[in-house]
Amino acid sequence: MSEEQSPFAKGAVGGSGGGGESGPIYGDQTAKQVLVERGLFIAAKVNLLITLILCIVRAAVNPVNAGLYLMYALSLCLFTGLEFYLIHLERMGELVSSRRWFVYVFGVFMFVQSICTDILVFE
């Protein structure tokens, strides 16, 4: 197979041919947008883990209200799961790119809920 016919030839993917150009990666997203979304995704995971650990520790220390603390953790897990599902839909192209703001708003609400959960757990 010659180089012109090879699917791995320069310019075959994306049609650019140069390696230094930063074109769209996922649909119409630039590399900067993908980096920001990945950063927010990692921050959401870390935030979720911290809050879950705090809820479990507080439930172990104070068994009288253990159910309440675990319900806070469950609520946050479900809310975060919905956000991760929205991010998955966006990456797969099922979520219209003009509605990308909804993922960010949902992420902000998740962070606010996590902070409120931390405050409620430690009163």
State the major sheet: none
Structural class: mainly alpha
**What is the share of helical residues?**
55-70%
Average pLDDT for all residues: 77
Low-pLDDT parts are 9-18
Task: Please report which band the strand proportion falls in: under 5%, 5-15%, 15-25%, 25-35%, 35-45% or over 45%.
Answer: under 5%
Number of DSSP strands?
0
Tally of individual domains: 1
Give the helices and strands as they follow along the chain. HHH
Amino- and carboxy-terminal Cα gap: 69 Å
Please give the radius of gyration in angstroms: 21 Å
Number of discrete helical segments? 3
Q: Shape from CA axes?
A: elongated
Structural write-up:
This protein has one domain. The protein starts with 30 loop residues before the first helix and ends with a helix. The protein has 3 helices and no strands. It has helices spanning 31-61, 66-92, 100-122. It is elongated and about 50 Å long. Residues 1-24 are annotated as: Disordered.
Summarize the structure.
With 123 residues, this protein is mainly α.
Question: Can you give keywords for this protein?
Answer:
single chain, mainly alpha, 66% helix, 0% strand, elongated
Task: Summarize the topology.
Layout: H1 31-61, H2 66-92, H3 100-122
Helix pairs in contact: 1-2, 1-3, 2-3
